[in-house]
Design goal:
Elements (H helix, E strand, L loop, with lengths): L2 H16 L3 H12 L8 H14 L7
Length: 62
């Protein structure tokens, strides 16, 4: 592996762990399994996700 490949892998890992790609993954899932459903904006998605986290506390780091 080249240093660039390693850097890309680390970037992917960090973004995955932090949930930065959650909206993209959600959109891909919705398009594949529920194409008739309108997608929320990214802002609406994050607002709903954070609201759900507040209403349903789970084990988390912060």
């Amino acid at each position: 592996m080249s240093p660039l490949d390693i850097a890309r892998a680390v970037k992917w890992y960090v973004h995955s762990m932090m949930g930065d790609n959650a909206y993209a993954k959600y959109c891909a899932h919705m398009r594949a399994h529920h194409p008739e459903t309108a997608l929320p904006t990214e802002r609406e998605f994050w607002r709903a996700k954070h609201h759900d986290a507040e209403m349903n506390p789970r084990a988390r780091c912060c």
